[in-house]
DDE Tnp4 domain-containing protein (Rhynchospora breviuscula), 431 residues
Amino acid sequence: MPCPSPSPSPAAKRKASSPPSSPSSPSSDEKRLKKLKLKPLPCSRLSQLISLLASSLSLSRRFLDLTLPPSLSLPLDSSLLSASLSLSRLLSLLPLPLQSLSLASLSIPPSLPFPSSWFLRLLSSPNSPSAFPLSFRLSRPAFYSLLQSLRLPFSSLPPEHKLGIALFRLAHAAPFHTIARRFGLSSPSLACQAFYQVCHAITTRLCHLFAFSSDITLLTQGFHHLSLPNCCGVLGYARFPIKHDSLGGSLIAQALIDSNGRFIDLSVGWHGSMKPLQILTRSNLYHTQLVSPPRYVLGGSCCPLLPWLITPYTIGPQSPSTHVVFNQVHACAMDMVNKAFGLVKDRWRLLSEKWKEGQAEALPYVVVAGCLLHNFLENCGEPVPEKVLLGTELVPEPLPGFADFEGEGDEGGIRMRDALASHLIMARPQV
């Protein structure tokens, strides 16, 4: 006896009763558009709308340049440029004859000539003293003092334009096409040439500011407030990021800092995988023997203990008080080099950006320029810009530190450190 077939469900009956949809049948959206009686927009009209949008974006970028500080306007400028490029791609979909109607309004807005540029407006506005520090990380008087010291040649650009371009890029890591627009240049390549020309002038004209051997007595007197006799400086290391791993992801700088936080010796460009010992033994500071006992410099735990390079003790539960006191004073001194590198990176944001591998050859020269500018501004008594002090700029990605030195300390270095520790326990400085 055959089994009875199951009766279809109500949902199946409804599905079976509805006719199959034809692939060519109009969708609900198409029916809705027909009811609204919307007509397709002609290509010529669409091209005009794109032109209006592009012009609005261009005017918006110029408006931001004139009304907001660079730290706020530059991120918005990047978004507006992305919108302009999107419009450019949309325009490329139009018929070729119509593309020419609005192509000039897209890409990067044309630069204003010198008389109307953002930079000259800034120069001609002496009643806004905060504008210079916000734009260039230094005051107007310091700007012109630096300009006089560099003696930049007058070529296709006036010297003040060249210096403004270099300081603006250092301070904000601004792309060259943005700098060209702000300074009224016809090409980003002119901004690039001016930037590296000024960096070269800084490393040439201001190199005397790395004056380690000029007055050793004056250097040692600076550390008397820490009760450190014969101390000539503090040695430290810093990394500057690079996007490619072939260089270890960074370049390393070795610096000697005086008691005022100024760089008195600098060696930059070491491979990111190198250890401080490898860098130290290859540096001029090591081979020229500028420091010898009884004079010395302080170094971190990543350095070897030498008669002229004094590192901290390894502290344990049974460490004597002399070791503890010495390490406290030593840490206060090491803060000087950390602060100096920190101020350089905070003031010149370009040095915290990840540089492309092809640009890595220029990075050491830019780091040297940034440190020399730091010394110049310290000598001028130039205050650190408020935004740098408050930490309101973008925080860079943290970089790896340096491992502790694992070798044995030099016997002469051990005796020197023990003598300093005994002296400090008698002096008992307030730290």
Q: What stands out?
A: The first strand starts at residue 231 and ends at 241.
